[in-house]
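User: Can you write out an input/output pair for a complex, sequences first and structure second?

Assistant: Here is one pair. Inputs:
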Amino acid sequence: MTKEEILAQGGSKVNARPKLLLDATMHYCPGCSHGVVHKLVAEVIEELGMENNAIGVAPVGCAVFAYNYIDIDWIEAAHGRAPAVATAAARLNPDAVVFTYQGDGDLAAIGTCETIHACNRGENLTIIFINNGIYGMTGGQMAPTTLEGMKTSTTPYGRRVDLNGYPLNITNLVKELDGTCYVTRQSVHTPAAVRKAKAAIRQAFINTREKRGTSFVEIVSTCNSGWKMSPEKANKWMEENMFPKYVPGEIKNTVKNND
Amino acid sequence: MKEQKEVKLMKGNEAVAHAAIRYGVDGYFGYPITPQSEVLETLEELRPWETTGMVVLQSESEVAAINMVYGGASTGKAVMTSSSSPGVSLMMEGISYIAAGQLPTLIINVMRGGPGLGTIQPSQSDYFQATKGGGHGDYHLIVLAPASVQDMADFVGLGFDLAFKYRTPAMILSDGIIGQMMEKVVLPEPRPRRTDAEIAEQCPWAVTGKRGRKHRNVSTTLELESKTMEENNLRLQQVYAEIERNEVRFEEYMTDDADYLFVAFGCMSRICKKSIQQARERGIKVGLLRPITLWPFPYEAIAKLAPRMKGILVAEMNAGQMIEDVRLAVEGAVPVCHFGRNGGIVPNPGEVVDSLINQFHIHD
């Protein structure tokens, strides 16, 4: 497909800067997926004209400063509690489009209870879930999503399921909950993947605008600093090791005739 | 013609629910725990979402409840929760965030005996937790101590008014007796919930979505620059100093001719009023100072009364918590003793009088 064909279909340039992305130096490591996902979220909010009613809820973790990068109103939640914070913000402000942006430690370890129950109640939210299988902010400790055998600073000899349990596939779990209307798993490591991820985020935000329940978008991501790999090698490692466990693609979609 | 006020008979917990709807509260988020579950139950029964539009939600835990309060309050809405001691312990992280974020909220603790899972019987053993922080960091809550069902109803409005005036969380520190007992109560006049326009005007900091604003609002408590974080702390301390100057509330009872003074709060102050009657029948002149605000604490009022007394008995349903603040106020001017029962035991008035007589060697 040529650039013109993609743009004609409503797609946007992969490398244009969205207006809502603030002119701030991001604190993310070179090669990190967060920057790309931030850009997609900013683009979607802008394209859907939600800059005046979007409320973002930031996590504790690497994306703790997400509120410094996208020009909308934000609430910074305590570790793991973003879905509870967002629940109240959404219920008390029915005209707002509320979303959380959370990492794997935040969403699938300390915040599992809030995640499950917000999804089960079908709160009118979008949950963006960055899964890189590691705690980035605190220096590369084991996450609930850390793969078996994967080395982290708290599993220096590799994750052992007899000691640490199994990698938690929380996205497959929330799929089973009746409150979720849309559950998908994406990545942002190639231009094609970026486009698909953007379409997924866009669908989620539309669902929230239309009050369809909880939309859950997992982005399988790299943490080249935590994984101690070059960005290029991290992308390859993700494809070879993360994707077999966290298979990209649409998982649940109860919405007929999207948009 | 004299206006007839409607008098109702209800539990303290029920009065809180009615008062919340009438005050125009926007949201209640809570989790069941004895002895305060009637707050949530009454709200669910009254279905205020059909009348005032108030949101009522039973959360999955007290941790979720307080973070819902944090999220709701961040949007400028009048939001509250209630719980009892173990549940309030779970909320402490969230309360610290709410204080740091300068978010007006109301938290109600209908205390039961601890520590641990403890008992479902009434107690006053969360005084330290409520008045000295409880959560991490340098912060205070405005703490109101009701002594009647009427107070339970009135302090909902008072708590929110103070919370919004100073942009700080307020707590009603009640107990299982006040929550569970039925008394006559006159409920506050109903008033409408604030409109979104009023919230935008009164709470320019509220996270509502930008709604055409040039600047964006961010509710956060994170600041990695130590210099700025110290400034944030000093700003909080200035607010606390202003609250200490303006909002100390207390009640004095029969102190004019008293030789001895009881200091007691909440349900214990009610018991002490009966003890005073019994003591006076035995020729011992006792008065009462009842702190209504536990923070800010009425240090000055106690310091002023102390020199006129032969002794002060601090009566609490705990092992001795408020007595530390009384001793700070008295600064050794007169002896200060403690009477306490723990574990859910509610003392009778005579026990308190006996304790006064024994500890101060009074021969009647």
